[in-house]
């Protein structure tokens, strides 16, 4: 097929199989280049839509696309997703019986599969079909695994260099979410695609709000945070196994469904946790960093870092697991000095300790930033953001800066008086005049600044000290029990009258509780949304696939909004392609129709609700307020109820003499069909509602 023909098929294929109307940034260029049989290297953030870059062209190639992928769980998810979209795909790995494997090989030889997923370890078993008779294209997913420069090196990936040698005319596309320049180079060289065109898409994930909080009262903060987001899926990353387990226990004590995930579990246990999460059986996973790679779950709504990650790459990759469906997601990072110190300790003895410490330092700067955090994050990846993002905590409530010179002087002179020999905790103890063992043992109560800062809380002192460190007025001597030391700058403050600006501490609980981020997931999800969700859940159970593979949250929200009644309406929805229309269309349309019907019945029954309240003794105005309707509407209900023979004390609302005059008017006006002629007749002196009620009485009498 000439390239031009391909091009014309891109959008129709996108709609038919994936249900989308347009490509995400760069997808079209990447796909076109691949269809032109050019090699490519794609660097796209998690959730950016990498899979599309080889899944869509696979439909236009005549033979199969071979996808190399590191994890069985990832393959299964992608294959299920493809099949749900009507794309013939399969995976091939060691967990399958040899009959299953033979069947797959047969299908490939008959060109019945568009995509075949395989782990590098299993490639030798596919020897007979990995050649240009059967394969049109090769995709290397998670390509950073090939490079020992990357953060997730897998030796089995290194054998992939044979692919270009044995299939020299087959285009290779390598994809990854994280790769710095050195890693990129390495990937291309090792795969033998040194001339591959590089596609580096923006790393910005606008839909993920960024928040950093001090770590005090983390658990309470987390409970509060989750409480504001009931029934949503999220991941909490912790540094140690023990923390994951303790945290799970605390969440369970609050009746939240949570599981721990760490390297101490065996393979089956870990698969179970992962599966329950993917299938929405567990909403929360408390995990060490081992969790998440290869999880395509699109509706992770939040990611919390209980501990600080050791570098920005890791942090960004982990928060990237939130909001893949493009809807709002939150990333919350807890920052504590204890973590920084521990992470520093981890670097000790490693070969590239300097690099690791420098990376940790950048992570710390991000956590302590007083300017737009996204700018800092993106600049780390070499991307410049022109405007502040508006979706990070700093942008949303910029810190208040004040003259903190006196505070700085108190801290720095305490550091000087303890001979630069004490860590943050002891300095704060001195300032606050603490009488604990450390202070008394060391005789710190004799220091001149002892107790001069009693009126300021521990937490606030800590906040100020961190800022002094960040601004270079003090530093931590990691070699000397993390003692605080003075710097060149501090002398200017102590002796030369230099001014210091500090920011006000913010109350952790106060802010975290009210998520100002644009939570597109409605707080009160509507009745229809809930019905659609439970329908999706039922289907997912029946088909044994994760709910988000039936439809993403984004698609469900759109169905709720558009309320499609026909196949054509349904096909308009983003995320609905031909197969999903055929398989699920009727079910969802039926749900919408049933919902509409119930709603309209309810409308004709609305006066009965009023009757209920009337019987409870509420006044008309009270009923109106309670039902959020206008009083005349309630009066019309009363009239209707009276006509239907309900025991309404109608003369509470209209007097007998008024009824008499209206009766007279009716004859004079020759029973007009509307109320206005009466209103005019009485020169606007009798309210509409009374006319309506009187007419009900008159009709009843007749
Ligand atoms: P990645 O592999 O880069 O982490 P995925 O391939 O899993 O990302 O894609 C993330 C989500 O984006 C999926 O739900 C996918 O269906 C969706 N997506 C991909 N391309 C598009 C598009 N052009 N329009 C709308 N959604 C898309
Ligand atoms: Zn910002």
Could you explain the architecture of this structure?
- Helix 17 (424-432) packs across helix 19 and helix 29 runs parallel beside helix 32 (688-701).
- This protein is 48% helix and 11% strand.
- The chain folds into four domains: 3-200, 3-Layer(aba) Sandwich (Rossmann fold); 208-396, 3-Layer(aba) Sandwich (Rossmann fold), CATH 3.40.50; 401-505, Orthogonal Bundle (Arc Repressor Mutant, subunit A); 527-701, DNA polymerase, domain 1 (Orthogonal Bundle), CATH 1.10.150.
- It is built from 32 helices and 17 strands.
- It binds adenosine-5'-diphosphate and zinc ion (ZN).
- Zinc ion is lined by residues 372-374, 388-389, 392, 394-395.
Short recap of the structure:
The protein is an alpha/beta fold and 702 residues long.
- The gyration radius over C-alpha positions equals 33 Å
Q: Give the total of domains.
A: 4
CATH class of the largest domain: Alpha Beta
Q: Write out the strand line-up for the largest beta sheet, numbering strands in chain order.
A: 3-4-2-5-6-1-7
| Mean pLDDT across all amino acids | 89
How many strands, which pairing sense, and closed or not: the largest β-sheet?
Answer: 7 strands, parallel
Q: What is the share of helical residues? A: 40-55%
Instruction: Identify the bound ligands.
Output: adenosine-5'-diphosphate, zinc ion
CATH architecture of the largest domain: 3-Layer(aba) Sandwich
What ranges have pLDDT less than 50 throughout 5 or more consecutive residues? 508-523
Number of E-state strands: 17
Name the shape in a single word: flat
Structural class: alpha/beta
Number of helices: 32
CATH topology-level fold name of the largest domain: Rossmann fold
Relevant CATH superfamily of the largest domain: P-loop containing nucleotide triphosphate hydrolases
> What distance lies between the first and last C-alpha atoms, to the nearest angstrom?
82 Å
- Give the strand content: 5-15%
């Amino acid at each position: 097929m000439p390239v031009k023909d391909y091009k014309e098929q891109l959008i129709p294929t996108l709609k038919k199989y994936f249900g989308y109307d347009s490509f995400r940034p760069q997808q079209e260029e990447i796909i076109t280049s691949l269809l032109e049989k050019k090699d490519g290297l794609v660097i796209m953030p998690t959730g950016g839509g990498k899979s599309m870059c080889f899944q869509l062209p696979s439909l236009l190639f005549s033979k199969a696309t071979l996808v190399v992928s590191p994890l069985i769980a990832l393959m299964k998810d992608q294959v299920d997703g493809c099949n749900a979209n009507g794309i013939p795909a399969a995976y091939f790995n060691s967990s399958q019986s040899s009959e299953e494997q033979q069947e797959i090989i047969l299908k490939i030889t008959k060109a019945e599969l568009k995509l075949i997923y395989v782990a590098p370890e299993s490639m030798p078993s596919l020897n007979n079909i990995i050649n240009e008779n059967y394969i049109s294209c090769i995709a290397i997913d998670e390509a950073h695994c090939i490079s020992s420069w990357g953060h997730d090196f897998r030796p089995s990936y290194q054998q992939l260099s044979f692919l270009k040698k044995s299939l020299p005319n087959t285009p290779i596309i390598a994809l990854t979410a994280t790769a710095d320049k050195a890693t990129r180079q390495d990937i291309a060289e090792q795969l033998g695609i040194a001339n591959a065109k590089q596609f580096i898409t923006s790393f910005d994930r606008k839909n993920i709000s960024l928040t950093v909080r001090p770590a005090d009262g983390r658990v309470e903060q987390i409970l509060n945070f989750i409480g504001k987001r009931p029934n949503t899926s999220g991941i909490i990353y912790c540094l140690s196994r023990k923390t994951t387990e303790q945290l799970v226990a605390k969440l369970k004590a609050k009746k939240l469904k949570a599981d721990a995930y760490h390297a101490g579990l065996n393979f089956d246990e870990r698969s179970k946790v992962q599966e329950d999460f993917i299938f929405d059986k567990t909403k929360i996973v408390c995990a060490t960093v081992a969790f998440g790679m290869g999880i395509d779950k699109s509706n992770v709504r939040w990611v919390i870092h209980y501990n600080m990650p050791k570098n920005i790459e890791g942090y960004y990759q982990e928060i990237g697991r939130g909001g893949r469906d493009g809807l709002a997601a939150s990333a919350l990072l807890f920052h504590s000095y204890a973590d920084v110190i521990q992470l520093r300790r981890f670097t000790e003895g490693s070969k590239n300790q300097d690099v690791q410490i420098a990376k940790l330092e950048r992570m710390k700067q991000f956590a302590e930033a007083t300017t737009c955090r996204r700018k800092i994050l993106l600049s780390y990846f070499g991307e410049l953001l022109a405007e502040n993002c508006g979706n990070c905590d700093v942008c949303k409530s910029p810190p208040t800066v004040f003259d903190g010179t006196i505070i700085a002087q108190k801290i720095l002179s305490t550091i000087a008086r303890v001979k630069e020999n004490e860590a943050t905790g002891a300095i704060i103890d001195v300032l606050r005049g603490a009488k604990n063992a450390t202070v008394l043992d060391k005789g710190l109560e004799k220091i001149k600044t002892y107790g001069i800062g009693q009126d300021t809380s521990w937490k606030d002192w800590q906040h100020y000290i961190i800022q002094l460190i960040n601004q270079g007025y003090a530093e931590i001597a990691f070699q000397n029990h993390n003692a605080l030391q003075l710097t060149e700058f501090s002398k200017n403050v102590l002796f030369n009258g230099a001014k210091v600006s500090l920011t006000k501490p913010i109350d952790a609980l106060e802010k975290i509780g009210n998520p100002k981020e644009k939570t597109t997931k409605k707080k009160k999800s509507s009745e229809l949304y809930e019905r659609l969700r439970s329908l999706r859940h039922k289907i997912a159970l029946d088909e044994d696939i994760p709910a988000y593979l039936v439809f993403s949250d984004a698609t469900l929200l759109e169905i709720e909004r558009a309320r499609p009644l026909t196949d054509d309406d349904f096909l308009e929805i983003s995320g609905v392609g031909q197969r999903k229309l055929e398989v699920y269309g009727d079910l969802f349309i039926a749900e919408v129709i049933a919902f509409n019907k119930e709603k309209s019945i309810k409308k004709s029954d609305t006066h009965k609700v009023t009757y209920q309240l009337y019987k409870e003794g509420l006044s008309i105005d009270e009923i109106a307020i309670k039902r959020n309707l206008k009083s005349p509407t309630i009066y019309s209900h009363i009239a209707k109820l009276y006509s239907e023979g309900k025991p309404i004390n109608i003369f509470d609302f209209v007097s007998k003499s008024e009824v008499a005059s209206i009766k007279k008017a009716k004859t004079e006006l020759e029973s007009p069909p509307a109320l206005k002629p009466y209103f005019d007749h009485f020169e606007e002196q009798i309210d509409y509602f009374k006319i309506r009620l009187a007419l009900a009485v008159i009709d009843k009498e007749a």
